[in-house]
Amino acid sequence: MTMAEGAPPPMPLIDDVSRFFWEGAARGQLLILCCRDCRKFVHPPRPVCPFCLSSGLAPEKVSGRASLYTWTIAEQAFHPYFADKLPYVYATVELVEQANLRVITNVVDCEFDALQAGMPLEAVFTELSPDLTVPQFRPA
Fold it and tell me: Would you give the DSSP letter of residue 21?
């Protein structure tokens, strides 16, 4: 995909717990923490598994397949970067790897009227700036 024009995008606060996620996205990979003890995926990233309290979490590449859980159409920009991108779909998707494993994202390449709860989606990676690539989802 192409780099966005206009104002620079808002940047995530990248720390030691989330760095893997953003570095994976820059390589076109969707990485999610997986607990080495109970084998459950954990997102958003955190230092301790909320299921078994283990600190044995490590990034794993997931398929990038998901279903649309919920969405809204953004019609007002909360940051100057988004002013020329309105309207757009702000969504929560559920990854196929685990029930209730959800990611906040955008749905792209889809008419608003075609959006349906449960519709199958696949991850795509969009470079918003030289320092930021984000996973987004499109109809599969």
Answer: H
Report the predicted TM-score, pTM, of the whole model to 2 decimal places: 0.92
The strand order across the sheet containing 31-35 reads: 41-42, 31-35, 57-61
Residues 6 or more apart from 8 whose CB is under 8 A from it? 81, 129
Contact 85, 136 (CB under 8 A): no
Give the pLDDT score at 128.
94
pLDDT of residue 6: 76
The alpha-carbon radius of gyration of the chain (Å, integer) is 15
Q: Answer whether residue 8 is part of any domain.
A: no
Count of structural domains, the chain: 1
